[in-house]
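Action item from last meeting closed. Structure (89 res):
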C-alpha cells in the first residue's frame, strides 16, 4: 500500500474527529446537548481519536501506542453514543 493512502486516511480521520469535537462543544454551549456523563464520554472519545490521528500523522509515537489509543477512543465514542440521551431539538 502506498504511503500517501495511509496519510490520506489519517488526515481524514483527524479532520473528521476534530469536526465532531467542535460540533459537540457548540451544541453544549447552545444548550442543545444534555450535560450528562455519557455525552461527555462520547465527546472525549472524539478528542482521543483526534489526538491519536494527530500523533500518527506526526509519526511521534509507536504504531502500537497509536492503534491502542485510537481503539480506546473508538470504544468511548461507541459506548457514549449508545448510552447517552438524545440531543434536544
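Sequence:
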Amino acid at each position: 500500500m502506498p504511503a500517501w493512502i495511509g496519510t490520506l486516511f489519517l488526515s481524514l480521520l483527524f479532520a473528521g474527529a476534530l469536526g465532531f469535537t467542535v460540533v459537540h462543544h457548540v451544541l453544549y454551549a447552545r444548550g442543545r446537548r444534555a450535560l450528562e456523563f455519557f455525552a461527555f464520554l462520547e465527546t472525549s472519545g472524539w478528542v482521543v481519536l483526534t489526538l491519536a490521528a494527530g500523533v500518527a500523522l506526526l509519526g511521534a509515537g509507536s504504531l502500537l501506542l497509536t492503534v491502542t489509543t485510537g481503539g480506546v477512543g473508538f470504544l468511548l465514542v461507541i459506548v457514549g453514543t449508545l448510552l447517552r440521551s438524545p440531543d434536544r431539538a
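Note appended to the action item: Helices lie at 3-30, 37-58, 63-83.
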